[in-house]
Prior knowledge:
This protein has helices at residues 3-6, 12-28, 30-36, 44-62, 70-85, 93-105, 109-124, 131-153, 159-180, 182-187, 195-199, 205-214, 219-240, 251-270, 284-303. 71% of the residues lie in helices and 0% in strands. The chain has 312 residues and is mainly α. Residues 305-312 have low confidence and may be disordered. The protein is globular, with a radius of gyration of 20 Å.
Amino acid sequence: MNELDAAGITGPALRAAYAECRRINACHGRTFFLATRLLPARARPAAHALYGFARMADDLVDVPSPGTDPAVALDKVAGLVDEVYGGGVPAGPVLAALADTVRRYGIERGLVDAFLHSMRMDLTVTEYATYADLAEYVHGSARVIGLQMLPVLGTAGPLAEAAPSAAALGEAFQLTNFLRDLGEDLDRGRLYLPTEELAAFGVDRALLAESRRRRVPDPRVRRALAVAVSRNRAVYRRAEAGIPLLRPESRPCVRTAITLYEGILDEIEALDYDVLNRRAVVGRRRRLAVALPELARAWFSASRGHGLTLRT
C-alpha cells in the first residue's frame, strides 16, 4: 500500500506536499530516511514532513540564497507557523505538510518555536563555553525534534514517560553532528564543542583552525575529541533506554537509527579523530547490513497481519 494512502492523505495538493518532503528527506537525510522505512507506512509521511521543515529552516541559516537575510527569512517562517497553529494552510509544500502533521498528531507549538529560536541563535552566537551554556541551543535544535517525533512514533504508555529518552535521542544525534561537522562548522565561523572543555586539553579555536588549514592532526585535538565521543555515547545509552516505551512497531526504526548514527562515532574513532580533514561516514554496505534484517522482520510481521507495509 502507498504510504500516503495508509496515512489517509487523499487531496492531490496535500499528497504532492508530502511527496516533496519525502524527496527532501531521501536526498538530504540518508540515515534518517533509511530508518523511516521501518516505520508503519501510515507514520512515514509525518516523519518526512517534520524532517522537511527542519531542513528548510536550517538551510535558511546555513546556505541562504544570495541576497537574502536569514533573520528576515526566519521571521517569515515564524509568521507561517502562526498561520499553521491558527488553523490555516500556508503556501508551499513543506509548510502545508507540516500543518497537516501538526493537526494529525497534536505537535505542540512550543516545540516548533524552540526550534526556530535555536536557528536564530546560529545567526549571532559563534561558540559556547560549557555544555551548560550549549544546553539551550541543543534543546531547540535537537531535543525538541525527538519530542516532535514522539507522537508519530507512538508510546506503549503515557507520552510523558517516554519524553526524556526521546529528547535524549535528538541530543545524541546533534552531538554526533557537532563532532562529524567540526571542520565545516569552523568554516562557517561556529564552534559547538564547548571552549572550556577543549581548553582542558590545550585546544582552542586557533589550534583547530590551524590544524584544518595545515591538514595536520594534533594529538591534543584527538584527546579532546575522544572525551567528547565518550560523552556522546552516554547520551545514546539514555536514548536507547526509552525504546521499550515506544509502540512495538516503531521500535525497529529507533533502534536502527541509533545503531546507524552512533556508527558515525565508530568511524570518527577509525579516523583517529581526524574530523577536521576527513568526513566520518557510515558506508552504504554497513547501513544496509544494519537495516536489511530489520526490514526483513518488518516484512514478516506485515505478512502475518501486524499492520506494517513496506511498499511505497
